[in-house]
Specification:
This is Eukaryotic translation initiation factor 3 subunit D. Belongs to the eIF-3 subunit D family. The structure is a single chain. This protein is of the alpha+beta class. The protein has twelve helices and 15 strands. The strands form two sheets. The chain has a ten-stranded mixed β-sheet. A five-stranded mixed β-sheet has the order 3-13-12-11-10. It has two domains: 81 residues, no CATH class; 376 residues, no CATH class. β14 and β15 form a beta hairpin.
Length: 585
């Protein structure tokens, strides 16, 4: 019988399959060949393959490899519950190609859109069932320089317009230019602010200023069949920032509070998690006092439109500086975001001026002190407005002295509902505007003239969805002022293509607390946000800061800025640095 001897077996102390480099004999002929770990449960598809280390086979004629390490093999192993041993190890056999930029060239690989039934034409008349949009988002019959399709290119397909593919991913610009020299001190995500809570007691009244006119109840009977035109009113109403308020300066000198703010700014901070558009707030820390101010020309002087809609209104894209052959953009549409915001601001102001009774009876109510901003040199009549200064205690523990002084506003009072000087019967007046339910950015709003009287709930629900942040701010401002009623007018254009003439279709009354509950607004969360931001600002020394809402992310950031930032001196210095003067059309 022929002798038989067992081959030598080298034990692997690492416990894995395959040879070990520690006890491998020096005369082993495969010693210098790299080894890739494997598992005995791996399935072998082929014994040789062109493999680039990325998991994709180089051979287009063969099916995907099922060897361990490839994408399909690893996926199959996970599905079958097998151990993908060594799958995270970089392949020693991978081929790495050194990039040769000298031979690189950019090639346009975009496929040309093929239209059934004929070639794509430019400037062609709109056919039945088509939908075209110009650069500003306005819907129209013809679009200069734009592509037009019928029925979205396929039966039952979506209706596409000008640059619809770019609307969702278009980046917004910040509300204030961030100087690279400004150090960023804090960054807070909105999701964190939406979880804080704080209960605040009833406020203390410090004083009443101004004059209030009674609300005209005849506007409660307006409907779509009995419209009233919106008239431009020549009145003066002030929106002075905190630091320039003489009453705030007097109260700060007495040390009645730690934080000084207006209801406009306070409502924005309390509704920060709902905000989508960018905003910025200037913060001045003076000793142990903090002043929150709006910036001149900022976002606090206008009213937003459909901010929370899935497809909000957009402004036209600026020209591409890298493409000199690009045609200059057309004038912004009347349905662009900026023009709609200016239109909504005009409507809100004039609706509040028009819905009050200026001639007795009933008489106007003069508070204990006159309007602090209306000087003797003013000649235009003053609008109905009552300023109520109140103090809230933001202390959490016993003995903590953090008090917030806020200036609130009421627009009118309801006759026969008590004494307005004692905070009874106060009314705030706001207005929602309809521009064109068929235009881009309308947010799926129904036609108010056909649905407002019969399906008001659907109209209100759509507005709560598209303008969640704006309505929440209005509710909070009414609660801060102690108003008993909110009057919200529904105002539409006389002609959808004309943004200068409007009609009042209806007026609704809401109790602020009930309206905030319908919007799912939590006052406890709002006060928690305020306390968190105050603590954020009190962490840093005296100086000037700016709190900025990121234009494209749910994040707010705190920057330290020089003392002359956002002032006239700063603007003059910036203008001197320019090589050429700015030309404003």
């Amino acid at each position: 019988m022929a002798p038989f001897s067992l081959p030598p077996i080298n034990d692997n102390p690492d416990g894995s399959w395959g040879p070990s480099s520690s006890n491998m004999p020096s005369e082993y002929k495969f010693r210098e060949i790299p080894y890739a770990p494997y598992s005995k449960s791996d399935k072998l598809g082929r014994f040789a393959d062109w493999y680039d280390g990325t998991g994709d086979s180089r051979n287009p004629t063969m099916g995907p490899s099922t060897t361990q390490g490839t994408r399909s093999g690893a996926t199959r192993g996970r599905k079958e519950g097998n151990q993908t041993f060594g799958s995270g190890t970089a392949s020693a056999f991978a081929y790495f190609h050194v990039e040769d930029e000298s031979s690189f060239s950019l090639v346009d690989s975009k496929a040309t859109a093929i239209r059934r039934g004929g070639p794509i034409t430019r400037g062609r008349a709109q056919g039945r069932g088509s939908s075209t949009y110009n650069r500003g988002g306005q819907r129209g019959g013809n679009t200069r320089g734009g592509f037009q399709q019928r029925g979205g290119g396929q039966r039952g397909g979506p209706r596409r317009g000008w640059r619809d593919w770019d609307k969702g991913g278009r980046a917004r610009e910040s509300s204030v230019a961030i100087n690279p020299s400004w150090p960023m001190l804090e960054e807070v995500e909105m999701i964190r602010l939406s979880k804080v809570r704080m209960e605040v007691d009833e406020p203390e009244d410090l004083g009443w200023y101004g004059r209030l006119f009674p609300y005209d109840k005849s506007y409660d009977r307006v409907n779509t069949k009995v419209e009233r035109p919106l008239q431009a009113q020549d009145r003066i109403k002030y929106n002075i920032t905190t630091s320039y308020d003489p009453v705030m300066q007097e109260l700060a000198a007495k040390g009645v509070a730690t934080v000084y703010i207006t209801d406009n700014i306070l409502s924005v901070l309390m509704c920060a998690p709902r905000s989508v558009l960018p905003w910025d707030i200037v913060v001045n820390r003076e000793g142990n006092k903090v002043f929150f101010d709006k910036r001149d020309g900022g976002t606090f002087d206008t009213v937003t439109v459909n901010e929370n809609a899935a497809d909000p209104p957009l402004d036209p894209l600026p020209p591409n500086p890298n493409n000199p052959n690009e045609k200059a953009p057309e004038a912004p549409s009347i349905n662009s975001a900026t023009n709609l915001s200016l239109e909504a601001t005009y409507i809100n102001q004039n609706f509040g001026f028009q819905t009050v009774i200026e001639k007795s009876p009933p008489p106007a109510i003069d508070f204990e002190r006159p309007n602090p901003f209306y000087g003797p040199e003013e000649t235009e009549p003053m609008a109905s407005c009552g300023y109520r200064y109140r103090v809230y205690d933001l202390g959490v523990v016993e003995g903590e002295d953090i008090r917030l002084c806020v200036r609130t506003e009421a627009d009118a009072y309801t006759p026969g509902q008590g004494n307005p000087r004692e905070g009874q019967g106060l009314v705030t007046i706001r207005a929602l505007n309809e521009f064109d339910p068929r235009a881009a950015g309308a947010g799926g709003a129904p036609d108010w003239r056909t649905k407002l009287d019969t399906q008001r709930g659907a109209v209100v629900a759509t507005e709560m969805k598209n303008n969640s942040c704006k309505l929440a701010k209005w509710a909070i401002q009414s609660i801060l002022a102690g108003a008993e009623l909110m009057k919200i007018g529904y105002i539409s254009r006389t002609n959808p293509r004309d943004n200068t003439r409007h009609v009042i279709l209806s007026t609704a009354s809401y109790r602020p607390l009930d309206f905030a509950s319908q919007l799912n607004v939590s006052l406890a969360n709002g006060w928690g946000i305020i306390r968190a931001i105050v603590d954020l600002c009190m962490k840093h020394p005296e100086g000037k800061y700016v709190l900025v809402k990121d234009p494209n992310k749910p994040v707010i950031r705190l920057y330290s800025v020089p003392p002359n930032a956002f002032t006239e001196e700063d603007d003059e210095e910036g203008a001197e640095d320019l090589d050429e003067p700015e030309i404003v059309a």
